[in-house]
Amino acid sequence: QVQLVESGGGLVQPGGSLRLSCAASGSIFSMYHMGWFRQAPGKQRELVAAISSGGSTNYDDSVKGRFSISRDNAKNTVYLQMNSLKPEDTAVYYCNAHHQLYGTDYWGKGTLVTVSS
How much is the pLDDT for 37? Predict the structure, then answer.
């Protein structure tokens, strides 16, 4: 079992920045691929960024060059640095942990990011 707690969401103006954090507990963090997903009102949940257990990253095209995902295995935490935010980035952002061997998925409860002037 993995427990995930997101933090760092809030209201920001267009062009601003936020850093989301996801603290994990309950299992061996380094065994998990980690990802950030988001879900806007009326839309399906979508992958924003992911980082493998080995540190490889990938991003949705809509956030490439603006968002950066990283992990600190010593702190059992994954981060999402979001720069040059746009109103279309407004969504609830969810942290996901995917076990690299068993394929088990765990989700946090989400943190709301609102980009508005």
Answer: 98
